[in-house]
Design goal:
The complex is a heterodimer of chains A (68) and B (165). Chain A has 68 residues and is mostly helical. Chain A has four helices and no strands. Chain A starts with a helix and ends in a 5-residue tail after the last helix. Chain B has a single domain, classed as Beta Polymerase, domain 2 (2-Layer Sandwich), CATH 3.30.460.40. Chain B has seven helices and nine strands, in the order αβαβαβαββββαββαα. Chain B has a five-stranded mixed β-sheet. The relative contact order of chain B is 0.18. Classes of the chains: A mainly alpha (68), B alpha+beta (165).
């Protein structure tokens, strides 16, 4: 994604066209900025990011103290 | 443990196992921010492919997820040929093998709805956004329906940007 395409994407998600799926998702609570950032990555980079997030969340999950 | 997505995919690729990447990993490949811990694939349900798949997975101690520890199970060609969907634990993490995808059908139909994506220098068929939306809508569970606004927004954004991927 070029810098100009990125700017266009940011403008689109800041003011999504009325009645669009983008507008519906924003209303639903989807963080559209995450999608734009992911589209800047290659598929390999997206999956490395997923791997890293999944491993981190798993560590957090296992670090939660047991309730007595 | 989070699945090692790269190693599991390479395992299939190296053994020429015919699969399509589906589920949360496909969502991520398409740009979603959804976090998943397992790899879901749709496999071609033929004798030869099943044999290659079982041979490739054998060194990674596949066993049924959520089944009693003492339940006898062996992932071999006969077992897979008789069944369809298997949720497994392996030494490379959780892996779901699906013979068909809700709302789309079996491997050939899923492959038709996929796009080739390069991951770590190898090409894999990955379920398209349209396929993901179709399957999530058909599955209809709350978690599937919750994923729809993001997937539809991604498709809308890509179309408006004139992007194929």
């Amino acid at each position: 994604m070029t810098s100009a395409e990125h700017d266009r994407a940011i403008a689109l998600i800041a003011n999504p066209p009325a009645g669009s799926k983008l507008a519906a998702a924003k209303e639903y609570g989807v963080d559209l900025t995450l999608l734009v950032e992911n589209l800047r990555l290659t598929t390999t980079e997206r999956l490395r990011k997923l791997q890293s997030a999944a491993e981190f969340l798993e560590k957090v999950r296992h670090s939660v103290p047991q309730v007595r | 443990m989070a699945a090692n997505f790269g190693k599991l995919l390479a395992l299939f690729s190296d053994a020429n196992v015919e699969i399509v990447v589906i589920g949360g990993v496909a969502m991520n490949a398409q740009g979603s921010a959804y976090v998943t811990f397992d790899l879901d694939v749709c496999y071609k349900h033929t004798k030869e492919n099943i044999a290659r798949m079982c041979d490739a997975l054998a060194p990674h101690q596949p066993r049924l997820r959520g089944a009693p520890e003492n339940l006898p199970f062996r992932l071999d060609a006969d077992t897979v040929k008789r069944g369809l969907n298997f949720t497994l634990i392996t030494s490379l993490g959780d892996l779901d093998l699906l013979g068909e995808v809700t709302g789309i059908g079996s491997y050939d139909a899923v492959l038709q709805t996929s796009e080739l994506r390069e991951i770590d220098g190898k090409e894999y068929p990955v379920l398209s956004l349209t396929g993901l939306i179709q399957s999530k809508r058909a599955a209809g569970r709350k978690k599937d329906l919750n994923a729809l606004p993001e997937l539809e927004a991604l498709r809308d954004l890509k179309e408006r940007m004139g992007r194929k991927e």
